[in-house]
Protein 1
Amino acid sequence: MASSFTMNLGNLLLLAASFVCVSAQINPTVQILNDLRLARLDRLNRITPTISKRQTTTTFPSFNFTQPLDHFTDTGFTWNQRYFVNSRHYKPGGPVFVLDGGETSVTDRLPYLDTGIVDILASATNGLGVILEHRYYGVSVPVQNFTTDSLRWLNNEQAVADSANFMQNVQFDGIDADLTAPKTPWIYYGGSYAGARSAHMKVLHPDIVYGAIASSGVVEAAISNWGYYDIIRRAAPANCSAQFITAQKEVDALLSDPTTNSKVKSFFGMPGLTLDADLTSFFSGLLGAWQEKNWDPAVNSDEFANTCTAMGNPSTAKIQTFQGFTVSNATWNLATIINKTSSRCPATSTSDECFGTLDDSDFQETDLSQTWRLWQFQVCTQWGFFDSPPPSSSIPSMLSKFVDVAYSSKICQQAYPPGQFFQVPALPNIEDVNKIGGFKIAHDRLAIIDGEVDPWRFDCAHSFISPSASRPDTPLRPFKLIPDAVHHYDENGLADHSQEPPAIQAIHAQEVEFVKGWLADFK
């Protein structure tokens, strides 16, 4: 049954891809609207994972492991979980390092298996490297569509059970040895959401997870994620932050004034746009590019730096707009940036059709090509992290007052109407996550590694609102903050590690050192 289902799924994906290509050829306007729709979804679903843009020329074998659809109720259905293996360093008696693929296709993580953290640790310990794909992502899809009901098995509990089952039962092709846990020491690694999963695996299954490394692990789920932008405000160049703060204040004031509300929307190239937040959410989309910074030029994005350059330097001068009101150079420059996107809206379409979020049908396609629905479903049910301004007016805000929790979370009800068997809650049940430890999560042989200027640090154990942010850093419980680092900076590496920046070489060396210490105590 599993093989037949995989074949049918592949045919469905090919059919969907063919349909998209044909549609684009027939009607360019439809394609533009679809591109704008995808950009809108990306803006709303901002937790798109940071993936390695560095290509690997090494081909690793992929395998499938059979998992039950539901680990807690027998449905009679199984599915194939994909994993890749790097055995180049393995010698009998060596450990297994498994990297959690997280909320993306596991192929996006292959550079980490080749020259990144998995290869670094395996090379130092004669270990076996594995990357395991998360249920519902990549080709590890256990269902035939992404309706509300079909997504009900996409949750923390099922994912944890997947990993535990894999570690206890997998047999590696070409290796004539039993490497299952706990007979063999397994070290679990993850970054971002997968970093939180790594910490959870160690706490929930200390008997089979010998050690774990949580890199930028978002261990504290939250309804309001206001600190994400506050970290960017404090870490970005001062002039850039000042310009964004000035612009958002000015635009919020213009939108709040009935005499200028429609005019400012026209100024930004979105005449007639209904929701004010549909305009100002564009600003947060620009800010989110900070997360894409990386020490490796092949992975790094210059988008945030380019935006800062385009925002210019603070000025007291006022500029007269064609709509009849004056603005600062910050707002003028921001509008120039946004108009590059808004100008793509076809003349035959309205601003709401191009940029609005009022039409529920924009979010209700459920075929298997709608992969944006996956992480968004997890956000809506268990994780949260909704955009919103700071809780106090005393904290300077780079985020519009209109982009609040109500706006950021409304997609949850729009995209996931109640099914026959499952209904998305009004707000995510973040206690499902935080009861495992939240900010205080800790365990022997659990390493916490975060980035100093990572916007997700707000939800990590090193958060400036965490009650345990200053805990000691010990070999048994490493607690490390990489200087001037953004999102899981330790995960990627170069083929020639001597060419990595000193801070990256240092954290990799520290990881090798404490992992070797852990393994020395394995019995």
Protein 2
Amino acid sequence: MRENKFSLIDEIISRIKTEHLDRKKLTKSNKNKLFYVAKQADGKLKVTLPFVFKREDFLDLNKYGIEGATGHIIERIKDCIRRGDFSILSGNLAKRYEALYEPVTVVNCDLNIGSDLWRADRYNYIKNENLHLLLRMIFDDENAKTIATEIDELVGKLNEFIQKIPYKDLKKETLNIVNQKDLRNRLDKLGLVCFIGDGSKPAREYTRIRRHYRIAGPKKGVNVEFKTPIELNPIEIELFDGNVITGLGIKKREIFIITGRNAQGKSTLLEAIESGQDDHLIGDGREYIITTNKVSKATTGTMQMNGQDISLFFQKLPKGIKGNPKKVYGTASGSMTMAYQIQRALNTKMDLILIDEDNSAVNLLVSGLLSKWFEGVKSLAEIIMNEREKLTSAFIIVTSSLDLLTACGDRAIYLEDHEAKYLDLKKFRRELGKYYLNLGTELYNKKEN
């Protein structure tokens, strides 16, 4: 069966006449990777082949952001596909082939997600004056001559379309990517670990294909823009292209709190901040949410420990766990796992640590009398208050109910109707102190029934 497939792809290639077929890549080592035929579950045939399209003005684009131009061209082609053109590239818009024409507004994402989507990557790129595209085409017919003829017609039309894309659009998208890369590289000199540009749109639209927030597209309909509260002193940033934008800068070693009621977009904003490691095409909404690449996320969970150090948080270990806080052996609890993640991030000199209360071990974040009695756990809130020098990373923490942790922050915002509002932490600490005193008095004076 495999031999027949290989014979069919060879016959198709032998009958293709277009000069755009990238025959240099049709090597033995690339067979079944860059060029192959695969029978699909619906009985159709998927033919994958590499092509190359030439435009001399590609040479004038800034190479530092060239993947922006590649992504722009691919998305323009997909726009046509979704209108019914170039139907071979979509299997006539069949749902099972959605990955071939699903929009993608993310480039340079280091996560292995969306690998089946058509986007700028190591197979689809611009080098010098050449645009290299790996086309996945769907055919009803298994006749090599018919397939080759249809490929020649398709590629001819694609070339005409690619040549007509205005250079100014390619340049604009290229500079968009350069702006993001350049600002990310300058964060350290600016004393920042993250920048959230005013006008950013963090909310995402999830589809059957794009289920992860890092690769999901902008939310349709109402998508509230981020605007820095004036009390937090929005900063001005000059971009590579000379334009100036404003936004919120998260400083090195800062403890920044994002709080508010449920379903106000707190976790969404944190996910957008994490996504700031990636570069985004114009229209994604996160183009100017720029985050250091030295970022770590701490969450609860379980793991097998083999000598890990959690001594920053734990003074003693629970029964059943071997070793000592500096060298732990056994199945770790959620708080132990999270403690290790934070301590590892600090030890490896991460610039930024992200924490979301919804995915956290609460007893590790805030002090508790019982946890101190029984577990010997020193909370993150205690460390912030008493051993701040040990926290060499910045923290962005999302919380809705951990008032003590909020009070430990350096600066804070709360989200209301999905808009960022300033939280006066000095006032909050005073009010929280009064609340605790009153609550303590009530508890102390409470009579047993």
Protein 3
Amino acid sequence: MRRAFDKAAGARALSTPGGAARATGSAPFGRVADRIASGTLLTIGGYFGSQMVRLIGNLVLSRILFPEAFGLMTLVTVVFVGVAMFSDIGIAPSIQQSKRGDDQDFLDTAWTIQVIRNVLLWIACCILSWPAALFFGEPMLAQLLPVAGFAFVFLGFLPTRTHTAARHLLIGRLTVIELLSHALGLVAMVILALITRSVWALPIGNVIGSLIKLILMDRYLPGPRNRFRWEKEARHELVRFGKWIFLSTAFNFLLSQSDKIILGKFLTIEGIGIYNVGFFIATAPMAIAIAVNGRLMLPLCRDHPPGKDPADFALVRRIRMRFSVVVAASQIALALLGVAIIDILYDDRFLASGGVVVAVALMNLPYLIGITYEAVAFAAGDSRAVFFLNFTRAVLQTGLFLLGITYWGLEGAFLGFALAHVLAHGVVIHLARKHGGWDPLHDAAMALISLAGAALALWLHGAELSALAGFLP
């Protein structure tokens, strides 16, 4: 009874301006250790559940549709993500780090900017649909992109309560809603696939999923609903912090999508679909890691800056070490088991995805070593440093991936990707030292674990990796 009363009190506190800040002092999650442990479990559980739902949907759809459909949607996603990232002003991290993060006027101004931005994103998808079709040589993109892009309109109306809940690590209900909306969206997609037997089931299903997410978030997250507002001070703060986020995420687009853009010019549409199946399996632990890092490490470093006090540094070190060990172990496990997973789950059309799982799981290990350090800079309001980090990563990754595939095929591309993040780690160290957060013991331990796991995976699956050389037409 007491626990239920405390949770209800926390929900009521969130429903009033400034109440979330007060709730953190009295709610069960008030102590940082409790909030971090609970938030971590909820985030991991939610994203694990989301990945499982997505995997089940992927398996079902792979038996209804054809590899080319997955290839087309991969290219749609490249444009979709690119449009979003090239216009991101960091509303979520702005709310999470701002002193006004619980002020309703500030939140309503942020929401108004979000709505305007997302409507413009849909218009941008419509405008870019024909150039994208010409660039990739796929006329269907001209029809698919305007439909898929309409999801932006629904997502633009998502309440800022999603960000204030994450700000205070009160993410239980948020996690359940996200998981439920994802599951219902995939159900809609599978039903459409059975009816149409065409690629159209995928973009329409995404739009339906976005609408479901909006309805559930608006209905079941506690707190006041957003209203259109245009407060000058809030707008200036959002733009001041967000200008570096805008530049940073533009380069972050290259980090997340440059491989698919480049492969879109080198592989057939069927080959891209096969690559994307392997990529999805291989990056599942990384998706969870990014979610946990964004939702938990930033609030942790905001409340306990590692450069201010040895006790805070020790706390951040313990959590970072445990986090990194789990993520690295999961990634290495996929590199070792990826071929078997594809053999068991997919039919013969997708068997080549096994080698892709191994390669992608290994090439991401250097990046994951430094993933938690960005939170230190964000918590200090130093979005400029994160921009320069992402700029360095994007230039190195895109350049070395393109160089590798041009001269040495897919094997060269994967090696180029990994080497890029090894070189970029120097900038990661500079960023972390600037804010007193660099942990050389952590980096050395993770490097040794990664090298050992990579050596074992290469020994076990050298043949599958060598077979990738024949993947190019």
